[in-house]
Structure formats: structure tokens, C-alpha cells
Amino acid sequence: MPERNIPQKTLESWKQIAAYLDRSERTVRRWEASEGLPVHRREHEKQDTVFAFRHEIEAWSRLRTRCSGTPATEAEGHPHANPSSNTYLLEHDAITRTMHCYIAGARAGDGDLMRPAFHPAATMSGYCQGVEYSGSIEHVFKWVTENGPAPNINPRFARIEIIESIAVVHLEVQRWSGKLAGTNARASDVFTLLKCNGDWKITHKLFHWHDQ
Amino acid sequence: MTKTEYLAEYDAIVNTVQLYIDGSRQGKSALMRPAFHPDASFFGYAGDQLALGTKFLFDWIDKNGPAPKIEPRVVSVDILDSIAVVRLEVAGWSGNLAGSGVRMSDLFTLLKMPGGWKIVQKAFHWHA
Q1: Does the pTM of the predicted model rise above 0.90?
Q2: Fold of A110-212
Q3: Do the Cβ atoms of A190 and B50 come within 8 Å?
Q4: Which residues contact A46 (CB under 8 A, 6 or more apart)?
Q5: Residue B110 near residue B120, CB atoms below 8 Å
Q6: Are B107 and A166 within 8 A, CB to CB?
Q7: What is the domain count for chain B?
Q8: Nearest to A123 among B41, B124, B127 (CB)
Q9: What CATH number is given to the structural domain containing B78?
Q10: Do A127 and B82 count as a contact with CB atoms less than 8 A apart?
Q11: Residues A3-38: pLDDT tens digits?
Q12: Is the Cβ of B105 closer than 8 Å to some Cβ of chain A?
């Protein structure tokens, strides 16, 4: 595909992103909503425009799996889907995959979509507008579903630290929106993960909601 | 956060974690309980067994008894407004359940409450 040879490091439209991944625009828009395809937006007065970094698209493509944890296969036509052979990278990528399941659910406004990322006994803690929220992770699933889609969230991994069977991930999420989040809200999230039977699962979500 | 505020928060966080260390050293969960949020969680593998819940932790500490030679080191303290992460390495664990010379890596997440910083989760890795 000639598009792959474009020297610039960003893809500047849905059309270019779709061409780069050899898929339709409809498919890549769906991947953004449900599978965490890293697409960014530039704010304009009338309408936002999208762009993507090629290195992020490639990283996502390498990691892409279903939320169930089934690796993407060659049959799906992903030229970059070569699993990593380095032990550290394998763990790091597995953790990122779990986090992308959370992000996909948050973006789609679908608590059930993110559920596979969590341990069944997971809990959450944090304050939002002076009110403490602590307890079962079910509260998060309920909040996300009630909040509805947040298509513009822009998560960044601020930290991924792995200590053998446990890990901590600090995620900065900007441009939260929705029925409960309001508009353009920011959250700092700290997730603790545990490697259970070969799968990384979130055991706790701690958040700080930045009041506007 | 000003420099003074930062130091105050840092010290308050480390003091909370110190209660965990004191309870571990003396084998008395009563010393560490005030450091934990009532809904705090506890996760990790002790061998093949998944240890879950602060009740498990407190029972374990009491049954393990004194571990006078533990050498705790604070590896990192990260503060993000109302939340914090502390990584602690503890070498020289001993006791009825720990055996001897065991090393543990702990990740604590803390929440700033009206009553001070409380541990909301402790995750551990037991180095076999």
C-alpha cells in the first residue's frame, strides 16, 4: 500500500488512518469507539479534526486483541501483530492490553465492555466533588454506563511499574464527557493489577477527579 | 502544592505506612489497623494461594507474630492531589508463617480523607 510510505509521522484524517490500517473508515471509527484505537482531536470552532500518530497506531496494532484476551490473528490481516518475544515486553504489553479494555469501555460508555479487565473482587476509591466513593468496582461499571459515550477522552500512560506478579498503572485521562462527567473533565487514575493465572487483572481503581 | 505543603503530605503518607511497618515488626495487627480505610482491599499470591481481603492480612500478621529483623525501605512516594502510591521493599521477613529471610515487595495506594491519609489497597509480591 503506497500510503504506508508517506514520510510524515502523523495521519491527518479518518481516510488516512483507514488507509494505513487497510480498513474502511467505518471500521476504524468503530475501533476507536470500542477497542481503543488511539485517535486524537484538534479542537476547532465549528468541528474538531482527527489525527493519529503512526507510532501509536503501530503499537495499538501490535497489541490489538479482543477484550477477552484472544490475540489478534494473522487471519485478521494485521501486518504488525507479531507478539513480542522479550519477557518484559510481554508483561508490559499484556498490562497495556488490559488497560485498553478499560479505556474502550470508558470511551464507549459501556461498563460491561470493561468488565473483563477487572478481577471479580476488585474495588474502587476516590473523591468526586467532595463526596467519597468507595466499594465494589460495580459502581464504576454503573457510572460508566450511565455516563454514556465519552468519545473524546484522551488517555495517557503516566506510569507502568511491574513488580513480578503485581503492577501499578497511572493513567491521566483528559476530555472526559458524558451525562455524569460534564464536559472537558480530567481524572487521574491509579490502577493496581495482579497477574492471576497468566492474565493481568485490575484489582483496584483509585481516582482523583480534578474539579473544574 | 508549595514546598511546605508537599513535605507535610509526604510525611503524613509515610507516617501512615509506618503504622503498617510497626504492626508487621511486632506481629500486632491492632497497630496497623488505623492506617487502613474501612473498605481497604488486600491482594497478592502467597505461593499458589490468592490472599484476599484485609481480614486475611490482619489474621496473618497476628499469627505470624514478631518479625524483629524486617528492613523496610521506601522506594517511591508519588502524590497526585488526593491520592498517592507508595512502593515499599521489605527484606528480612521472619515469623511463624513467613519463615525466615523472606523478601516482600508492597504497593500501597492511599486516599486523603478528612481524618488523614488512609491505605485503600495493599498489593504484595512475595519473592519465593
Answers
A1: no
A2: Nuclear Transport Factor 2; Chain: A, (3.10.450)
A3: no
A4: none
A5: yes
A6: yes
A7: 1
A8: B41
A9: 3.10.450.50
A10: yes
A11: 444 456 788 888 888 888 888 888 888 888 777 788
A12: yes
